[in-house]
Write the C-alpha coordinates for this entry.
Amino acid sequence: MIATSLDDVKKVLSENLSMEGIDLASLKEDSPLFSGLGLDSLDAIELVIILRKNYDIIIENMDEGRKVFETLGTLRAYIETNRKK
Amino acid sequence: MSQNWTGKSLGSAFFQNLLGFFIKYGGRYMAYFILYFVVIFYTLLPSVRNKASFYLKRRFPEAGSLKLLIHTYKLNLTFGKILTDRAILGIRGESEVISSEADKRLCRDLLAKGKGLIILTAHCGCWQAAMSSFDFLPEEKYVIYRRSRHDVDKHAHELSGKDSPVKFIDPAGFAGGSIEIFAALQKKAIVCQMGDRTFGDKAHSAEADFLGGKIGVPFGIYRIAAETQTPIAIIFFPYKGKGRIDSVISDVFYAQNRGGRTPADYLKEAEKFVQSLQKFTLEYPYQFFNYYDMWK
Protein backbone atom coordinates (compact mmCIF):
# COMPACT_ATOMS: atom_id res chain seq x y z
CA MET A 1 0.00 0.00 0.00
CA ILE A 2 1.35 3.43 -0.96
CA ALA A 3 -0.24 6.32 0.93
CA THR A 4 -2.27 8.47 -1.46
CA SER A 5 -3.89 11.71 -0.34
CA LEU A 6 -7.02 13.27 -1.76
CA ASP A 7 -4.93 16.24 -2.89
CA ASP A 8 -2.65 13.90 -4.86
CA VAL A 9 -5.65 12.48 -6.68
CA LYS A 10 -7.20 15.90 -7.31
CA LYS A 11 -3.90 17.13 -8.75
CA VAL A 12 -3.62 14.20 -11.16
CA LEU A 13 -7.24 14.56 -12.26
CA SER A 14 -7.00 18.31 -12.79
CA GLU A 15 -3.88 17.84 -14.90
CA ASN A 16 -5.50 15.26 -17.15
CA LEU A 17 -9.21 16.02 -17.30
CA SER A 18 -11.13 19.06 -18.43
CA MET A 19 -12.34 20.38 -15.09
CA GLU A 20 -12.80 24.03 -15.94
CA GLY A 21 -15.07 25.86 -13.53
CA ILE A 22 -14.66 23.30 -10.77
CA ASP A 23 -13.31 24.50 -7.46
CA LEU A 24 -10.81 21.78 -6.55
CA ALA A 25 -10.63 22.95 -2.96
CA SER A 26 -14.32 22.27 -2.49
CA LEU A 27 -14.04 18.63 -3.56
CA LYS A 28 -14.29 16.15 -0.74
CA GLU A 29 -13.96 12.38 -0.33
CA ASP A 30 -17.68 11.97 -0.93
CA SER A 31 -17.83 14.11 -4.10
CA PRO A 32 -19.39 12.00 -6.87
CA LEU A 33 -17.03 11.60 -9.82
CA PHE A 34 -19.39 11.68 -12.76
CA SER A 35 -22.40 13.67 -11.61
CA GLY A 36 -20.38 15.88 -9.27
CA LEU A 37 -17.42 16.76 -11.47
CA GLY A 38 -19.40 16.70 -14.70
CA LEU A 39 -17.22 14.00 -16.19
CA ASP A 40 -18.42 12.20 -19.32
CA SER A 41 -17.53 9.07 -21.29
CA LEU A 42 -14.42 10.68 -22.79
CA ASP A 43 -13.27 11.58 -19.28
CA ALA A 44 -13.94 7.98 -18.28
CA ILE A 45 -11.47 6.86 -20.95
CA GLU A 46 -8.93 9.32 -19.51
CA LEU A 47 -9.58 8.05 -15.99
CA VAL A 48 -8.79 4.49 -17.01
CA ILE A 49 -5.66 5.73 -18.79
CA ILE A 50 -4.61 7.75 -15.72
CA LEU A 51 -4.88 4.65 -13.55
CA ARG A 52 -2.81 2.63 -16.02
CA LYS A 53 -0.14 5.25 -16.60
CA ASN A 54 0.26 6.86 -13.21
CA TYR A 55 -0.37 3.91 -10.94
CA ASP A 56 -0.04 0.78 -13.10
CA ILE A 57 -3.60 -0.22 -12.19
CA ILE A 58 -5.91 -2.07 -14.55
CA ILE A 59 -9.57 -2.38 -13.65
CA GLU A 60 -10.66 -5.83 -14.72
CA ASN A 61 -14.39 -5.61 -14.70
CA MET A 62 -17.38 -3.32 -14.81
CA ASP A 63 -18.67 -3.99 -11.28
CA GLU A 64 -15.30 -3.13 -9.84
CA GLY A 65 -15.12 0.00 -12.00
CA ARG A 66 -18.55 1.15 -10.93
CA LYS A 67 -17.47 1.05 -7.28
CA VAL A 68 -14.06 2.62 -7.92
CA PHE A 69 -15.48 5.55 -9.89
CA GLU A 70 -18.30 6.29 -7.48
CA THR A 71 -16.69 9.14 -5.56
CA LEU A 72 -13.31 10.82 -5.25
CA GLY A 73 -12.86 8.92 -2.00
CA THR A 74 -13.52 5.47 -3.49
CA LEU A 75 -11.09 6.30 -6.30
CA ARG A 76 -8.43 7.48 -3.84
CA ALA A 77 -8.84 4.39 -1.65
CA TYR A 78 -8.64 2.08 -4.66
CA ILE A 79 -5.49 3.78 -5.89
CA GLU A 80 -3.92 3.58 -2.45
CA THR A 81 -4.62 -0.14 -2.16
CA ASN A 82 -3.75 -1.22 -5.67
CA ARG A 83 -1.09 1.13 -7.03
CA LYS A 84 2.19 -0.46 -8.04
CA LYS A 85 4.12 2.77 -8.44
CA MET B 1 -23.65 17.65 -34.46
CA SER B 2 -25.42 15.78 -31.70
CA GLN B 3 -26.83 12.28 -31.94
CA ASN B 4 -29.76 12.39 -34.35
CA TRP B 5 -30.32 8.72 -35.09
CA THR B 6 -32.99 6.78 -33.22
CA GLY B 7 -32.23 3.08 -33.67
CA LYS B 8 -35.89 2.54 -34.52
CA SER B 9 -36.44 -0.35 -36.92
CA LEU B 10 -37.56 0.58 -40.41
CA GLY B 11 -40.05 -2.27 -40.57
CA SER B 12 -42.76 -3.12 -38.09
CA ALA B 13 -42.81 -6.09 -35.74
CA PHE B 14 -45.78 -7.42 -37.76
CA PHE B 15 -43.77 -7.68 -41.00
CA GLN B 16 -40.80 -9.08 -39.12
CA ASN B 17 -42.99 -11.85 -37.73
CA LEU B 18 -44.65 -12.42 -41.11
CA LEU B 19 -41.26 -12.88 -42.75
CA GLY B 20 -40.24 -15.18 -39.90
CA PHE B 21 -43.30 -17.33 -40.62
CA PHE B 22 -42.49 -17.63 -44.34
CA ILE B 23 -38.83 -18.40 -43.61
CA LYS B 24 -39.79 -21.16 -41.21
CA TYR B 25 -42.41 -22.80 -43.40
CA GLY B 26 -41.48 -21.74 -46.92
CA GLY B 27 -37.72 -21.25 -46.88
CA ARG B 28 -35.49 -18.55 -48.26
CA TYR B 29 -37.06 -18.09 -51.69
CA MET B 30 -40.59 -17.89 -50.34
CA ALA B 31 -39.42 -15.20 -47.92
CA TYR B 32 -37.65 -13.31 -50.72
CA PHE B 33 -40.81 -13.51 -52.87
CA ILE B 34 -42.91 -11.95 -50.09
CA LEU B 35 -40.19 -9.41 -49.46
CA TYR B 36 -40.48 -7.88 -52.96
CA PHE B 37 -44.05 -6.82 -52.17
CA VAL B 38 -43.35 -5.78 -48.59
CA VAL B 39 -40.55 -3.53 -49.82
CA ILE B 40 -42.84 -1.91 -52.41
CA PHE B 41 -45.20 -1.06 -49.56
CA TYR B 42 -42.44 0.46 -47.46
CA THR B 43 -40.84 2.30 -50.36
CA LEU B 44 -44.14 4.04 -51.08
CA LEU B 45 -44.31 5.38 -47.53
CA PRO B 46 -43.19 9.04 -47.61
CA SER B 47 -41.48 8.73 -44.23
CA VAL B 48 -39.32 5.83 -45.44
CA ARG B 49 -38.47 7.62 -48.71
CA ASN B 50 -37.50 10.67 -46.71
CA LYS B 51 -35.24 8.69 -44.37
CA ALA B 52 -33.51 6.99 -47.29
CA SER B 53 -33.12 10.22 -49.25
CA PHE B 54 -30.49 11.73 -46.93
CA TYR B 55 -27.96 9.18 -48.13
CA LEU B 56 -29.29 8.50 -51.63
CA LYS B 57 -29.37 12.16 -52.67
CA ARG B 58 -25.70 12.40 -51.83
CA ARG B 59 -24.78 9.05 -53.35
CA PHE B 60 -26.79 9.77 -56.54
CA PRO B 61 -26.81 13.58 -56.73
CA GLU B 62 -27.93 13.57 -60.37
CA ALA B 63 -30.99 11.39 -59.78
CA GLY B 64 -34.45 12.80 -60.42
CA SER B 65 -37.59 11.83 -58.49
CA LEU B 66 -38.27 8.60 -60.40
CA LYS B 67 -34.68 7.40 -60.27
CA LEU B 68 -34.55 8.25 -56.58
CA LEU B 69 -37.63 6.12 -56.05
CA ILE B 70 -35.93 3.20 -57.82
CA HIS B 71 -32.76 3.71 -55.79
CA THR B 72 -34.86 3.74 -52.62
CA TYR B 73 -36.53 0.47 -53.63
CA LYS B 74 -33.17 -1.17 -54.34
CA LEU B 75 -31.72 0.06 -51.05
CA ASN B 76 -34.73 -1.16 -49.06
CA LEU B 77 -34.80 -4.47 -50.91
CA THR B 78 -31.14 -5.15 -50.13
CA PHE B 79 -31.75 -4.21 -46.52
CA GLY B 80 -34.77 -6.50 -46.43
CA LYS B 81 -32.82 -9.40 -47.92
CA ILE B 82 -30.03 -8.91 -45.39
CA LEU B 83 -32.51 -8.91 -42.51
CA THR B 84 -34.20 -11.96 -44.01
CA ASP B 85 -30.87 -13.75 -44.31
CA ARG B 86 -30.06 -12.85 -40.73
CA ALA B 87 -33.36 -14.37 -39.66
CA ILE B 88 -32.60 -17.45 -41.78
CA LEU B 89 -29.26 -17.75 -39.98
CA GLY B 90 -31.13 -17.72 -36.67
CA ILE B 91 -34.06 -19.96 -37.66
CA ARG B 92 -32.40 -22.39 -40.04
CA GLY B 93 -28.70 -21.85 -39.33
CA GLU B 94 -27.90 -21.17 -42.98
CA SER B 95 -25.19 -18.59 -43.67
CA GLU B 96 -21.76 -18.53 -45.21
CA VAL B 97 -18.93 -16.08 -44.61
CA ILE B 98 -16.63 -16.12 -47.61
CA SER B 99 -13.62 -14.26 -46.22
CA SER B 100 -10.45 -14.67 -48.22
CA GLU B 101 -7.61 -16.67 -46.71
CA ALA B 102 -5.40 -13.57 -46.94
CA ASP B 103 -7.87 -11.57 -44.82
CA LYS B 104 -8.16 -14.36 -42.28
CA ARG B 105 -4.38 -14.59 -42.05
CA LEU B 106 -4.11 -10.83 -41.60
CA CYS B 107 -6.58 -10.89 -38.69
CA ARG B 108 -4.71 -13.77 -37.07
CA ASP B 109 -1.39 -11.94 -37.52
CA LEU B 110 -2.79 -8.80 -35.92
CA LEU B 111 -4.11 -10.78 -32.96
CA ALA B 112 -0.78 -12.57 -32.61
CA LYS B 113 0.77 -9.25 -31.62
CA GLY B 114 -0.91 -9.77 -28.25
CA LYS B 115 -2.74 -6.46 -28.00
CA GLY B 116 -6.20 -7.60 -29.01
CA LEU B 117 -7.87 -6.24 -32.10
CA ILE B 118 -10.29 -3.42 -32.74
CA ILE B 119 -12.58 -4.00 -35.70
CA LEU B 120 -14.15 -0.86 -37.02
CA THR B 121 -17.16 -1.37 -39.21
CA ALA B 122 -20.33 0.51 -40.09
CA HIS B 123 -24.04 0.07 -40.66
CA CYS B 124 -23.54 -1.36 -44.08
CA GLY B 125 -23.66 -4.78 -45.65
CA CYS B 126 -24.28 -7.66 -43.22
CA TRP B 127 -22.70 -6.14 -40.18
CA GLN B 128 -24.89 -7.95 -37.65
CA ALA B 129 -24.87 -11.43 -39.13
CA ALA B 130 -21.18 -11.11 -39.91
CA MET B 131 -20.15 -10.56 -36.32
CA SER B 132 -22.24 -13.57 -35.32
CA SER B 133 -20.52 -15.69 -37.95
CA PHE B 134 -16.98 -14.38 -37.52
CA ASP B 135 -15.90 -17.62 -35.98
CA PHE B 136 -12.58 -18.21 -37.70
CA LEU B 137 -11.06 -16.15 -34.89
CA PRO B 138 -11.23 -18.05 -31.59
CA GLU B 139 -10.70 -15.00 -29.37
CA GLU B 140 -13.52 -13.54 -27.27
CA LYS B 141 -15.57 -11.01 -29.19
CA TYR B 142 -17.19 -7.87 -27.87
CA VAL B 143 -19.44 -5.55 -29.81
CA ILE B 144 -19.97 -1.97 -28.69
CA TYR B 145 -23.65 -1.75 -29.32
CA ARG B 146 -26.64 0.15 -28.01
CA ARG B 147 -29.98 -1.39 -28.72
CA SER B 148 -32.79 1.08 -29.02
CA ARG B 149 -36.05 0.18 -27.29
CA HIS B 150 -37.67 0.89 -30.68
CA ASP B 151 -35.54 -1.74 -32.42
CA VAL B 152 -37.74 -4.77 -33.15
CA ASP B 153 -35.18 -6.54 -35.37
CA LYS B 154 -34.12 -9.81 -33.82
CA HIS B 155 -30.52 -10.97 -33.85
CA ALA B 156 -29.72 -14.40 -35.23
CA HIS B 157 -28.92 -15.84 -31.80
CA GLU B 158 -32.25 -14.57 -30.42
CA LEU B 159 -34.12 -16.45 -33.14
CA SER B 160 -32.08 -19.61 -32.67
CA GLY B 161 -32.43 -19.56 -28.87
CA LYS B 162 -28.68 -20.03 -28.51
CA ASP B 163 -26.31 -17.90 -26.48
CA SER B 164 -24.91 -14.90 -28.31
CA PRO B 165 -21.48 -15.63 -29.81
CA VAL B 166 -20.47 -12.10 -28.89
CA LYS B 167 -20.74 -10.02 -25.73
CA PHE B 168 -22.16 -6.54 -25.89
CA ILE B 169 -20.75 -3.36 -24.40
CA ASP B 170 -23.27 -0.56 -24.00
CA PRO B 171 -21.69 2.77 -25.02
CA ALA B 172 -24.42 4.57 -23.12
CA GLY B 173 -23.78 2.52 -20.00
CA PHE B 174 -21.61 3.39 -17.02
CA ALA B 175 -18.49 5.36 -18.02
CA GLY B 176 -19.42 4.96 -21.68
CA GLY B 177 -18.40 1.30 -21.63
CA SER B 178 -14.74 2.34 -21.49
CA ILE B 179 -13.86 0.11 -18.54
CA GLU B 180 -15.18 -2.93 -20.37
CA ILE B 181 -13.38 -1.98 -23.58
CA PHE B 182 -10.04 -1.65 -21.79
CA ALA B 183 -10.67 -4.89 -19.88
CA ALA B 184 -11.51 -6.74 -23.12
CA LEU B 185 -8.36 -5.52 -24.85
CA GLN B 186 -6.36 -6.45 -21.77
CA LYS B 187 -7.62 -10.01 -22.36
CA LYS B 188 -6.43 -9.75 -25.99
CA ALA B 189 -10.02 -9.98 -27.18
CA ILE B 190 -11.64 -8.53 -30.30
CA VAL B 191 -13.66 -5.35 -29.84
CA CYS B 192 -15.95 -4.28 -32.64
CA GLN B 193 -17.21 -0.73 -32.93
CA MET B 194 -19.61 0.89 -35.34
CA GLY B 195 -17.41 3.71 -36.53
CA ASP B 196 -20.31 5.64 -38.05
CA ARG B 197 -22.49 6.20 -34.96
CA THR B 198 -21.88 8.87 -32.38
CA PHE B 199 -23.18 8.92 -28.85
CA GLY B 200 -23.59 12.03 -26.79
CA ASP B 201 -22.77 15.53 -27.93
CA LYS B 202 -20.56 17.14 -30.53
CA ALA B 203 -17.50 17.04 -28.30
CA HIS B 204 -17.53 13.25 -28.71
CA SER B 205 -17.17 13.22 -32.48
CA ALA B 206 -14.62 14.19 -35.11
CA GLU B 207 -15.86 15.59 -38.39
CA ALA B 208 -14.77 14.14 -41.70
CA ASP B 209 -15.85 14.48 -45.35
CA PHE B 210 -18.31 11.87 -46.54
CA LEU B 211 -20.13 12.05 -49.88
CA GLY B 212 -19.69 15.79 -50.19
CA GLY B 213 -20.46 16.87 -46.64
CA LYS B 214 -19.15 16.62 -43.10
CA ILE B 215 -20.31 13.84 -40.80
CA GLY B 216 -19.41 13.27 -37.18
CA VAL B 217 -17.80 9.98 -36.21
CA PRO B 218 -16.78 8.81 -32.75
CA PHE B 219 -13.11 9.15 -31.86
CA GLY B 220 -12.95 7.71 -28.33
CA ILE B 221 -12.04 4.29 -29.72
CA TYR B 222 -8.95 5.79 -31.42
CA ARG B 223 -7.89 7.28 -28.07
CA ILE B 224 -8.16 3.82 -26.50
CA ALA B 225 -6.36 2.16 -29.43
CA ALA B 226 -3.54 4.70 -29.25
CA GLU B 227 -3.11 4.16 -25.54
CA THR B 228 -3.21 0.37 -25.66
CA GLN B 229 -1.34 0.08 -28.98
CA THR B 230 -4.11 -2.12 -30.27
CA PRO B 231 -4.22 -2.53 -34.06
CA ILE B 232 -7.35 -1.32 -35.83
CA ALA B 233 -8.81 -3.16 -38.82
CA ILE B 234 -11.53 -1.48 -40.83
CA ILE B 235 -13.67 -4.36 -42.03
CA PHE B 236 -16.89 -4.26 -44.01
CA PHE B 237 -19.16 -7.20 -44.70
CA PRO B 238 -20.73 -6.85 -48.15
CA TYR B 239 -23.79 -8.91 -48.87
CA LYS B 240 -23.23 -11.33 -51.73
CA GLY B 241 -26.74 -12.73 -51.93
CA LYS B 242 -28.49 -15.87 -50.66
CA GLY B 243 -26.90 -15.98 -47.23
CA ARG B 244 -23.39 -15.30 -48.44
CA ILE B 245 -21.36 -12.67 -46.61
CA ASP B 246 -17.98 -11.44 -47.73
CA SER B 247 -15.54 -9.63 -45.47
CA VAL B 248 -13.34 -6.91 -46.85
CA ILE B 249 -10.45 -5.51 -44.84
CA SER B 250 -10.37 -1.98 -46.11
CA ASP B 251 -7.50 -0.67 -43.99
CA VAL B 252 -5.28 -1.66 -41.07
CA PHE B 253 -3.48 0.89 -38.95
CA TYR B 254 -2.37 1.93 -35.48
CA ALA B 255 -3.84 5.09 -33.98
CA GLN B 256 -1.13 7.59 -33.13
CA ASN B 257 -0.88 8.76 -29.56
CA ARG B 258 -0.65 12.52 -29.93
CA GLY B 259 -1.25 13.02 -26.24
CA GLY B 260 -4.45 14.98 -26.69
CA ARG B 261 -8.08 14.10 -26.23
CA THR B 262 -9.80 16.40 -28.67
CA PRO B 263 -11.40 15.51 -32.02
CA ALA B 264 -8.47 17.21 -33.79
CA ASP B 265 -6.05 14.74 -32.19
CA TYR B 266 -7.76 11.83 -33.95
CA LEU B 267 -8.91 13.47 -37.14
CA LYS B 268 -6.49 11.47 -39.29
CA GLU B 269 -7.84 8.18 -37.96
CA ALA B 270 -11.44 9.35 -38.37
CA GLU B 271 -10.71 10.39 -41.95
CA LYS B 272 -9.20 6.99 -42.72
CA PHE B 273 -12.38 5.34 -41.57
CA VAL B 274 -14.69 7.68 -43.46
CA GLN B 275 -12.64 7.34 -46.66
CA SER B 276 -12.95 3.57 -46.39
CA LEU B 277 -16.67 3.92 -45.82
CA GLN B 278 -17.07 6.15 -48.86
CA LYS B 279 -15.14 3.65 -50.97
CA PHE B 280 -17.52 0.96 -49.77
CA THR B 281 -20.61 2.98 -50.72
CA LEU B 282 -19.19 3.63 -54.17
CA GLU B 283 -18.73 -0.09 -54.70
CA TYR B 284 -21.93 -1.18 -52.93
CA PRO B 285 -24.38 1.72 -53.26
CA TYR B 286 -27.36 -0.22 -51.93
CA GLN B 287 -25.66 -1.55 -48.81
CA PHE B 288 -25.42 1.54 -46.63
CA PHE B 289 -28.14 1.60 -44.00
CA ASN B 290 -28.08 4.80 -42.04
CA TYR B 291 -31.65 6.01 -42.47
CA TYR B 292 -31.17 9.47 -40.97
CA ASP B 293 -29.46 12.71 -41.82
CA MET B 294 -25.86 12.11 -40.84
CA TRP B 295 -24.86 15.44 -42.34
CA LYS B 296 -27.15 17.54 -40.16
User: Anything to note?
Assistant: The CA atoms of residues 2 and 80 of chain A lie 5 Å apart.
